Amino acid sequence: MKGIQLFLTVVVIASCWAALNPTSRQQQEIEEHFLPLHLSKIDPLSARALMSNDFESGFIDPWYDASPSNVHWVVEDFAAPNEANNPAPTPSFGTKYLRATRNANLNSGLLILRTLKFTALPADQISISFWIRSKYTGQNTLDLVLDNGGTESTLYSWSSYSTSVNFEWRKSVPVPIPVDAATDVTLIFYAYCGGNPEDAIAIDDIVFESSNVPATTPVSDDCQDFLQGNTSVPCWNLEGKCYCFSTITTENWGETEKFCKDGGMNLLSIETQEENQLIYNHWLANPEAINKRTYWTSGRYCPETEWLWIWSYESDGRNCQQQSQFNYINWAENEPT
What we know:
This protein is α+β, with helices and mostly antiparallel strands. It folds into two domains: 201 residues, Jelly Rolls, CATH 2.60.120; 96 residues, Mannose-Binding Protein A, Chain A. 18% of the residues lie in helices and 27% in strands. Strands 1, 4, 5, 7, 8 and 11 form a six-stranded antiparallel beta sheet that branches. The protein starts with a helix and ends in a 26-residue tail after the last strand.
């Protein structure tokens, strides 16, 4: 009889681990079944800027619940816990967090929290606040997994904190995202919550950031806080150069160039990959101050020679061929048109 019980246990565990490594077809089926329609319209680069979430809004975007069982990830308010006999500890900030929520019978089950596909860059990292408790030490689990091209790898596990005496939120160490270049990936939290009254798992304060974002203090001796005093155009000194980011939407390239020149500046000329990355990292690190995705640059094509692209800051009457041509390009797909 004991042999039969052992056999059944092994089968169950093997089935659970098989579910953690879906094939490409299974991955597509997961997204078709669980991914909300409004998230499916977000491109990977835009999704990157949305990765952090403290759940105070009551929404979990761009994360989504893909749990296959009776246990699901639900935003809970500390003032109104779903399990009154096992309330969460007081959050360090705000009142809302994401919790493994069971049915009235407290049935156990596997939980899956996924992001839609997003663009990860070298030096990216993620950290969370978490609370995990279980009647039996180590029974409940919480793991962070990276899906890169259909191959899953575990980045970190917090399962060792699962004890009956854990009554506090903990802050995780930053977990690096292991990519060597810009790569479209998915992050997944796999968790298991048992059926005992003491069992609980919760996540809060997801912070996604780059570990090498440069200092972005907008005050310096040679860089004004705002271009021409316009608070819609904040400026920063990045590695000794002054960059101003307009949050005003303009349809006319000429008017935009004139505005910059009237302020003693020029439209941006991106001349190296390092400069491109510097500006991009800064844009990602300041979503509230820089709330646009598209900008005019000083690039234009020479009307005298088809598809010869130059930087307009040298437009001083000289022949196009005598001006600075692009020595660095990073065109989007099917561009230029």
